[in-house]
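note to self — DONT lose this again. spent like an hour looking for the file last time. sequence + predicted structure for the chain T wanted, 154 res
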Amino acid sequence: MPYASPDPLTFSAGRLAGKVLFVTGASSGIGAAAVRRFAAEGALVAAAARRADRLEQVVSDVRAAGGDALAVTCDVTDEKSVSEAVDAAVRVFGRLDGAFSNAGQGGAQAPLHQIDTGKFDSVIATNLRGPFLCLKYQIPHLIEAGGGSVVFTS
């Protein structure tokens, strides 16, 4: 069953009216700003991040402003978490039209020989494996919807 916005007139004139977007790293910074902006343009936004409390606040802000968003707790380094988050978004909103892979973390600011291997692995898992996993589970839904757009923060 297709998703029905609680108030379809709220953002009907927006450039993204009725589009379903999936945003990672949505609990703060660029991701949170993107969720708010996409919703203000009429998108139905699946806001994904690890920090559930901050994520809920972003979604609450969107709803208070008249937009619509869904909080989906997601760790982009974990395949099951990504799969479940994408599936939850599609289950609630009925499809997927685009994605903003924004979750990321900065690397160590030290000479290479002083960088902790575990920290390096964590950066690679988040910044490289994360977008791969997101696309792996988003692409089938984007194809089913007839195509879409994917944007990456780098």
